[in-house]
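Record type: monomer structure entry
Structure origin: computed from sequence
Chain ID: A
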Amino acid sequence: MSMNFKRKLPIPKEIKEQFPVTPELATVRDERAEEIRRVFRGESDKFLLIIGPCSAESKEPVLEYISRLRRIQEQVADKLLIIPRIYTNKPRTTGAGYKGMLHQPDPNHSPDMLEGIIAIRDLHLSALHDYGFTCADEMLYPENYRYLSDLLAYVAIGARSVENQQHRLVASGLETPVGMKNPTGGDLSIMLNAVSAAQHRHTFLYRGWEVVSDGNPYAHTIMRGYIDHTDRSVSNYHYEDLIQLHDLYCQSGLLNPTVIVDTNHNNSGKRYNEQVRIAKDVVYSCNHNHDVRRLVKGLMIESYLVDGAATAADHQFGQSITDPCLGWEKTEALILHIANDLE
């Protein structure tokens, strides 16, 4: 068997010309980017919430969700800085299942990468145009980052990709903050090595070019729990875990020490309702210790309009078709609780 080269896709420049960022939107984007960078530099004590669906499967419910985030952002603007998740690429452990909007702009139809590229840019652009939000996405495919490079506020590199050389080197050339998740086995040294690689200069191959990067000072860690040798979920959001990471950062010499705590995945054992308790526990740890508060600059939360998850054929409007998520009522209450309790 061999690969079938189906068609040549447009390069990112062509897609950007078709769906441009206007000068007015560029101003909004740039002001927001600087506000986010100030958090990572420690110049702002606002707390980041990187929050939204496990995967964005359709434009309408995602924008409805983001419209609600916009309203609550105004209420908590003195304490919190919200970055909506619009995750358009979905890693699959076995390779089977829905791989995200990039692959399938309609989850009930066959994959169409061209329509997917257009759909994900249109969605991210709509979030900026309609609600003033630059958003987060996962860099599952480093070569596709350029289709969204002028729109993203935040990039995550997943637990299965964090050891990959190309992900690390591409991250070193981004101006966007890049979060490196701990690997599925939980080794913190692998995660910190990824951050170190991303913070240094490199020369490497990318999209047929010889590229020289300057290093990304905003590369940082994401703690998402892990799976031990018995295939059991183990959490790493506890106070002791954060103190350990703080000490490792102190020994590392890395710039802008930061961790974002992922409240789902193996931290919750994918029990999505546990995210509320975990978020509150992390806030308590931040309030208890100044070093922890300086290190923990935010949370990553999986949330959507409707609780839980269902299949693409059976899900409700605004319900996840991948990992289960918190519904809106619980989400709103949690955001307000975090803003109220964080010292």
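Annotation 1: The longest helix spans residues 113-131.
Annotation 2: The chain is about 40% helix and 15% strand.
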